[in-house]
Amino acid sequence: MVEGLQVYPGRMRENLERSLGLVFSQKVLLQLIDAGLGRLEAYELVQRNAMKTWKTRKPFVDLLLADKDVTRVLPPAKLKACFDLKSYGGAVSEILRRGGV
User: Fold this and answer.
1) CATH of domain 9-98
2) What is the mean pLDDT of each run of 10 residues along the chain (101 residues)?
């Protein structure tokens, strides 16, 4: 299924950086919910900052860290952890293992 697949880590990183961190929005949303916010309120905070990221081209994490409504619920260290690529590696490794890769 993945025979012949070529992976270009540098290009992958460029694509992630081009997103300004928006690819991590779901993880931020779930962390806000886990921290006690209702789903709708958490969604509105994420959406507000995501839209601002698109308009200003400022990194998503920077806008979230500057948003008092976000940081009153989620400490900066926990927020920054949402953007750690290493936290996603385990799932990918498991999926590849199950696929026999």
Assistant:
1) 1.10.40.30
2) 77 87 96 98 98 97 98 97 80 62 54
